[in-house]
Amino acid sequence: MPPFPAGCVWLVGAGPGDLGLLTLQAAWALAQADIIFFDALVNEDVLRLAGGGAEFVFVGKRAGCPSPKQSDITALLVSAARKGKRVLRLKGGDPYVFGRGAEEAQGLVAAGTPFRVAPGVTAGIGGLAAAGIPVTHRDVNQSVTFVTAHDASGGLSQKLNWAALAAGSPVLVIYMGVRLMREIGASLLAAGRAPDESVAVVSHATTPRQTVLRTTLERLAAGDAPGAEAPALIVIGRVVDLAPVLAPIAPALVEA
């Protein structure tokens, strides 16, 4: 394993939830760290892999809840590293996939703080696989687009090009979109996406609480998604139709 020296920060992905999807590098780093700054979506079982003397600091962000500013989190990482600690920043999924990891890395570079990134399994791939939904299938799609639904304010992102998304990608995987399902569905319909296109909402992916709701884009736009709750992924496209065949041991699909 690579060295984890004092005064260094590791940005580590904890995966989508299932402890078994944690990487060996992440587990090793947890055992070495002196202080661990962790997010809201990190499985508590992952934290139990830390060394006996490790200090834990919660810095999670959840929509609608008070949370520390991004600049404050980066300042905490820099401060701990300057005290000679081995600092681990633990994030759900992968740090560089809608996890603000790159923002924190930029802050570390600006402060002259050495760091390393330990990638994790992102929910948009591992979480969907656990639901029996392949991100790609050569008979279905040759591309996939990963989308974050909201902007820094928590509202629907105004930077998204809905026409391009509707026309250019056969499969859309949307993160952090449960509260905005109606708006997402309506925006794609208005941009020309088919009303009867298959949609799945996967909540609490890879955990014992996982649920998979199958519906259509039209019904999603109408808010017809009973039981869907955050954290969740919304996947739109024909790969959803493979779930009944490919998920025989996954939680039963719920039809909206």
UniProtKB/TrEMBL annotation:
Transmembrane segments: none annotated. Keywords: Cobalamin biosynthesis, Methyltransferase, Porphyrin biosynthesis, S-adenosyl-L-methionine, Transferase. The keyword S-adenosyl-L-methionine applies. This is uroporphyrinogen-III C-methyltransferase. The gene is cobA. The lineage of its organism: Bacteria, Pseudomonadati, Pseudomonadota, Alphaproteobacteria, Hyphomicrobiales. Its EC number is 2.1.1.107. Pathway: Cofactor biosynthesis; adenosylcobalamin biosynthesis; precorrin-2 from uroporphyrinogen III: step 1/1; Porphyrin-containing compound metabolism; siroheme biosynthesis; precorrin-2 from uroporphyrinogen III: step 1/1. The keyword Ribonucleoprotein does not apply. PROSITE patterns: SUMT_1, SUMT_2. InterPro entries: 4pyrrol_Mease, 4pyrrol_Methylase_sf, 4pyrrole_Mease_sub1, 4pyrrole_Mease_sub2, CobA/CysG_C, Siro_Cobalamin_biosynth, Uropor_MeTrfase_CS. Belongs to the precorrin methyltransferase family. GO terms for molecular function: uroporphyrin-III C-methyltransferase activity. GO terms for biological process: cobalamin biosynthetic process; methylation; siroheme biosynthetic process. Pfam families: TP_methylase. It comes from Hansschlegelia plantiphila. Residues 9-220 form the Tetrapyrrole methylase domain.
